[in-house]
Every structure is written in C-alpha cells, then in structure tokens.
Write a structure and sequence with these properties.
Order of helices and strands: EEHEHHEHEHEEEHEHEEH
CATH class of the largest domain: Alpha Beta
CATH superfamily of the largest domain: NAD(P)-binding Rossmann-like Domain
Strand content: 15-25%
Number of strands: 11
Number of helices: 8
CATH architecture of the largest domain: 3-Layer(aba) Sandwich
Length: 225
C-alpha cells in the first residue's frame, strides 16, 4: 500500500491520478453487456492492489451491492463528478505547433470536462486558421480575452523559452490553472494550480524500464544456455 501523501480537496493526489484510469476501463466495459463491476475486477484489469482500488472508489461515496459490485453507469457518473468532469471547463491553448494542434484535434477532451474554446499563436501564417472548429488567434489578444471571457484554465504548448512569459501573462489576466506541456518549471503565484506533463520525463521512465528489461532478458537467455 502507498504511503500517505499530498491531499487535494480531501482526496489523496495518487488516488486522483488513478481515477481517470478507472473511467477509461469502465467506458470500455459499457460497450459490452456488463452492468455491474467489482473492485477486484478493476484491480485485475489494471494490475493494481484490490484494497487500494476499493479505497479509491470509496472517495466517490458510491456503495456497491453485495455479490454484484458497483452499478457500472452509476460508478462512471460518480467518478466523473469527483473529478468535476461532469462540468465543462473552458480553456485557452497557447502554441499551435504539432503538439498543440494534436490536443485541439482531440475531440474527446469534452468528455473529460475540458472545452478548448480558442487557441493562440504568434505565427501570422497560423492566425485565422481553424483546427477542429477552433479559431487560431494572435497571442496579442490572449490577456484581453482571458479577462473578457473569464477563462480559468490555460494550456501551454509553447517552446521552453516562451513558456514563463506566457504563463505570467495568463496569470496576470486571471488564469487560475495551467496545464503545462513545456519542458520547463514555471515560477508563478502559489495560488495558481500548475500541472506539468513532461513528455521527456515519461520517455525517460519508459527507456530506463526498457533497458532494465532487456538486460534481464539477456541474463535469462545466458543462464538458459
């Protein structure tokens, strides 16, 4: 079992990071005729500890039925509510390169409570174009539109050298949470929520695990000959 750590709104942060995995699994199950699901089933499918899964699901307040488990549809609704995914949160994205364009083009974000309503870039050749129905606007309009539309979430997909300045402009205009894809630590007001998605960090873990696996496999082959 994991040690106690940071809590957000009374819920441990590791639990909040696992809840989306449960939702993705349960949505796949919705495509079948399954009506009820147990915590043991979820744990087996996701290779997690069943006790931890039960504790995670308990934060939603949902109660399972003896010998049946949790009502699948009700569990999804409860998880969505816990993550506030049953409310759409408008967001602005800055930086319409390959990554930014891919994020804008991913329509499923609306199912997870995120509604990207506008994108911004400093490249004149990109301005006024649309991606997935979202217009690309000049970054010079960013602060004014954040204030006018009372946007709370900013998504940063700009190069590292531009990220800090754009983040400061967002915060000054009223942004309360930043989803940061830039490979840099942002220094902003402590009241602002920053969630860093470092692709290089994730890649580093992947390649390290791969290296360890290949070494282990090589040793097993050697000992078997």
């Amino acid at each position: 079992m994991e040690k106690a750590g940071k809590h957000i709104g009374g819920i441990p942060e590791p639990t909040l990071r696992r809840l989306p995995k449960y939702i993705d699994l349960l949505k796949e199950l919705q495509k079948t005729k399954i009506k009820y699901v147990s915590s043991n089933f979820i744990a087996d499918k996701l290779n997690l500890d069943s006790i931890q899964v039960r504790k995670d699901l308990a934060v939603t307040g949902i109660i399972g039925k003896p010998k049946l488990g949790f009502d699948l549809d009700e569990l999804i609704r409860s998880l969505n509510h816990t993550l506030n995914w049953d409310n759409l949160n408008d967001a602005f994205l800055v930086g319409v390169g390959s990554l930014g364009s891919a994020i804008i083009g991913y329509s499923a974000f609306s199912s997870y409570g995120l509604n990207i309503v506008a994108a911004f870039d400093n490249d004149p050749q990109k301005v006024k174009k649309t991606i997935n129905g979202i217009e690309i606007l000049p970054v010079t309009k960013l602060a004014e539109m954040i204030r006018r539309m009372k946007i709370n979430i900013g998504i940063l997909t700009v190069p590292a050298e531009s990220a800090q300045a754009i983040a400061e402009e967002m915060v000054e205009a009223g942004i309360k949470a930043i989803w940061n894809f830039a490979p840099i630590h942002l220094s902003v007001n402590k009241d602002v929520i920053i969630e860093n998605l470092l692709l290089t960090q994730s890649l580093g873990l992947l390649t390290h695990k791969l290296s360890a696996k290949l070494k282990k496999d090589s040793m097993l082959m050697f000992t078997n000959h």
